Amino acid sequence: MSPATAPPARRGTRLMDRLAAWTSARGRRDAAFRAPPEPRLLGDPARGRALLAGELRRPGVPVQAVPGGALWDITAPPPPLLAELHGFGWLDDLAALGDRDARHAAQALTAAWIARHGGGGGPGWTAQLAGRRLMRFICHGLILTAGQAPDKTTALMRSLVHHANFVARRWQSAPPGLPRIEALTALLLAAVELDGLERFEEPARDGLRRACRAQIDETGATPSRNPETLQAMLRLLALASDALADADRRPEPALDQAVARGGACLRALRHADGALPRFHGAGVNPEPDALVRLLARVPLEPPRPDARAMGYARLQRGRVSVIADAAPPPMGPGSERAHASTLAFELTSHRWPVVVCCGPGAGFGADWERACRATAMQSTLAVDALSSARMAPARRGPPRLVDGPSSVGLEIERAPSFTALLMSHDGYAASHGLTHLRRLELSRDGRALSGEDTLIALSDADRRRCDAALARAGAGGIGHALRFHLHPQVRAAVDTRTVALRLPCGELWVFHHDGHARLTLEPSVYLCPDAPRPLAAQQIVLSATAAGYSSQMAWTLTKSDDSPIAPRADTR
């Protein structure tokens, strides 16, 4: 799940939220900060300037025009934008800007929200969004109260108590994972930063301990396998731990241990440019500087023997990184954002992505949200234009992944001149009797990536299913296509059996294949949620047919000797 996305609430949950929002306002009293709060959540000053100029720019949502700064007059915002508005993430950007105009805008927008929705109305009264808002009200308390009239300060403090009471009642209604951790972190901040709310500290501690055990396992992985969701959870846990330390409260070891485990996992997932891979709903890459600060508090550890972190396998030589999805996708509940990306890979050279996955489409509507999850939108092989995991409609929200690969294999081969990943998955065994085998070999100097993709029927039962699939396919055989989606900044030119890829830095990579497939260069898209629309890109496609129990395609992606030794760093 993208950190910017609020999950849809069921009807019963919405009614209970609304009732709790109204009743939590009864009997409330003023609150006061024990000490001036630290502005721990700072965003991007450039986005703060844009908001003052009438544009809302937040990670995970397209740019939104806000004439006159009237955020609360935007009509019918889509769910990701609604979450950004009522979660007050934009307040981080105004705080980072920090000048008088930013302070006045922050105070005016907050006062307008309290006047319009502070009584418990409007769409922002869910445990997750109320928690986000409460967190921002606390972390930016100095900005929101500086120079304010007493009645405005009193209204803010009463709203803080109202929010804390609401979150204390409803945090268990937030879906497990990031939404629940957001609500509990906000409740813990309220307990340690505000007088009179100490009763919420132990419930918040206990809830966070349980969330750490359930959502971050011993290897640092999270069930969604979304790297950005893991980053967002760790950032919140680190915030909660720092708040306890600053208030001289008893430390909570479970938080620090979870941050250490998850941070080691994230460190293993970063590409050569420092970005996280775009798998299973990731692609927003929010606050890259925040990731650097988060990892700075995590001790360095030796690499894992199996080179796998959260189900991803990594190769890196020189300044070239390759990250492949080498585990089954999340399926069933919690897989609403998961992609059918098993064995897909991404390649980054220095600071420039080359081969990518298309990314998340939730910000562009339901059609793109569904399309982006298909195997054809990942850099891997698809059989008969089918996905390696299928989507089944859910009662509410996006469809879930079902019937995907149950067995995904990974072996590491190391030699003096190369390191290779040998991977497999059985996502097409039930439908076609075929197992996908993929070998990715990165040379010692990082200048050549070689690949072999094989479809094969391994057992007698698989061969019977393959015979049935061949009979359905007819004389043409079973069609399959191997796709390499390119970053929009890569300029591609195709020849008979090669494709030349020019990067913005001047590097030249050459794609070549063994001639056993038809090579085409086709349109693709790059789904960057910050952009107003999907970005045009290109993809290399190798198309072939299987007329028997096996089919193989071999290919190479090699950095040309004409590439500069020191790529230009000022082109991005």
Q: What secondary-structure arrangement, pairings included, does this model have?
A:
Layout: H1 11-23, H2 45-52, E1 55-56, E2 64-65, H3 79-87, H4 90-97, H5 100-117, H6 127-139, H7 141-145, H8 150-170, H9 178-193, H10 201-215, H11 227-246, H12 253-269, H13 288-296, E3 308-309, E4 312-317, E5 320-325, E6 345-349, E7 352-356, H14 366-371, E8 381-383, E9 390-392, E10 400-402, E11 408-415, E12 418-428, H15 429-432, E13 434-443, E14 448-456, H16 460-473, E15 478-486, E16 491-494, E17 498-502, E18 508-513, E19 518-526, E20 535-546, E21 550-559
Antiparallel strand pairs: 1-2, 3-4, 4-5, 5-6, 6-7, 7-15, 8-15, 9-10, 11-12, 12-13, 13-14, 14-21, 15-20, 16-17, 17-18, 18-21, 19-20
Helix pairs in contact: 1-8, 2-4, 4-5, 6-8, 6-9, 8-9, 9-10, 9-11, 11-12
Describe the structure.
By secondary structure, the protein is an alpha+beta fold. The mean pLDDT is 90. Strands 3, 4, 5, 6, 7, 8, 15, 19 and 20 form a 9-stranded antiparallel beta sheet that branches. Strands 11-12-13-14-21-18-17-16 form an 8-stranded antiparallel beta sheet. A two-stranded antiparallel ribbon has the order 1-2. It contains 16 helices and 21 strands. Strand 13 (434-443) and strand 14 (448-456) form a beta hairpin.
Unreliable runs, pLDDT <50, ≥5 residues?
none
Q: What is the CATH T-level topology of the largest domain?
A: Glycosyltransferase
For the record, the count of structural domains works out to 2
**Given this structure, which CATH class of the largest domain is correct?**
Mainly Alpha
Helix count?
Answer: 16
By secondary-structure content and strand pairing, the structural class works out as alpha+beta
The CATH superfamily of the largest domain is identified as Chondroitin AC/alginate lyase
| C-alpha termini separation | 28 Å
